[in-house]
Structure formats: C-alpha cells, structure tokens
C-alpha cells in the first residue's frame, strides 16, 4: 500500500486507488490512514463524520462505509493478482484479505500499513533524524535531512478531504510539525552561513506568518549577517506592532534580547553565535 496524506489524499493498493469519491467515506479512510496500525474507535469515527449530530442510523451507515472501502480493497487486490484471484471473482475469495487490510477490532477498525508506505510516517522519521543531527551540531546533515522531509509535502494536508472535528485536530498538528521542521531547516542553513540565500524565503514566510517569533528572529539574524542591520530592526518593529494590535502583547523576552543585540551591534556574525542561541534558549 502507498499512502499520501501530506497533500491530496492518495491511497493505492497494488497501484490501484482505493480512495472513495464520496466525502464521508474519504473522511473515514483519511482518519484510518493517519492512525494506521492503531484501532480507531467507532465513537471517534462517528464524531469525525457527524460531529454532535450523530443520527440513529449511524452504526449501520458506518458499517456500510467500511463495506464500501473493503470492496475497493478487494478490487485492488484482485487487480494485482490477475491469475488465480481473478478466477475466484464473485465467490467471496479476497474478502479475508480485505479484512486483513482493514480489520474489525474490539470497539473499532484498524488499517494495516507499514510505516515506510506512508508519507506522513516518512516525514516524521526524517524530521526526527534531522532534529537529532541539529542538536548534535551537524548542521549539514540536518539541513539535508529536514529538506528531504519537507519535500514530501504536496500542499496542504488532506486538502481534498472534508475535515471534521477529529481530522481538524490531526491536520493542525501536522501543519505545526511542518512549520517546526521548516524553522529547524532554516536554523541549520543559518548555521552553515547561508544568510543571503535565505532572505527571500524568510521574507515570504514572515509575511505569511506575521506573528511567528521564530521566523521573525531568523529573518533578523539573516539580515544582520548580510549587512542589513536597519532592516533587521524594521522586522522587529513590524512584529511588535502586529503583536500589540492583534494580541495586546509585547514580543517575548528572547526577541527583545535579540533586538538589543542587533541594536547595539553585539550580535556577532559567526553562524553559531547569539542569534540562534537566543532563539533556542531565550538568552
């Protein structure tokens, strides 16, 4: 099986898509794919599909959706085995295989999936390895690993799937992971001295996330080390103005320390010095 979650939903078995066209079965498959190898309880599935307006027929309807998914699994399994399996078409053969792929467990359902077959699991694995490399001081390996992780994204996670309460939380968590990995990759690139080449990307990211202090601090650091001291100060002032207007708060202590370091010229130009340390530790 090949599962793509980091973008439009894509679930292929033997090269055949098993993604339903109807919205609610897509939700069901998406949630099972995100929580692959774990049992997703019936109440959780119902909450995702119907929210607080769960109909009396929910249990029957949910079983119908599961049956529909298993039929698509069976068709994909048969397509991948054109010999004996095709000869048994219509006899019920393959149903057991479908139930091993999408199994009924106590209180719920479980999708069988190897970690290496999911782009989400691969992203999380690469991100973890990149984070370890960054903490160990190997910025080059960290940058490469984190860039590979980010390259798995094909757009907004599950962009073509109706998102209910449960999937909404899952998607939010994935997007937060993506942002954190992006911040770490930029940190690694700053450590490698790639200040000037990061400016365009950081300007775009700060414009897109005007209250993200980590990105603002990284842009300030890149500008300072590229000779744009006054532009780095402008970034801080714009962040401060936005935070006051939107939230009524001042920038955090660590951002204020970075601002003072830039203002006084105490932020050294060596890649491993104050800017990144301030972002990590708050001074």
From TrEMBL:
Pfam families, per database record: BTAD, Trans_reg_C
PANTHER family: TRANSCRIPTIONAL REGULATOR REDD, TRANSCRIPTIONAL REGULATOR REDD-RELATED
Name the record gives this protein: BTAD domain-containing putative transcriptional regulator
Family: Belongs to the AfsR/DnrI/RedD regulatory family.
Residue intervals of the OmpR/PhoB-type domain: 1-113
Residue range(s) of DNA binding per entry: 1-113
InterPro entries per record: AfsR-DnrI-RedD_regulator, BTAD, OmpR/PhoB-type_DNA-bd, Sig_transdc_resp-reg_C-effctor, TPR-like_helical_dom_sf, WH-like_DNA-bd_sf
UniProt cross-references to PROSITE patterns, sorted A to Z: OMPR_PHOB
Entries under SUPFAM superfamilies matching the protein: C-terminal effector domain of the bipartite response regulators, TPR-like
Organism: Streptomyces lateritius
Keywords: DNA-binding, Transcription, Transcription regulation, Two-component regulatory system
Taxonomy, superkingdom: Bacteria
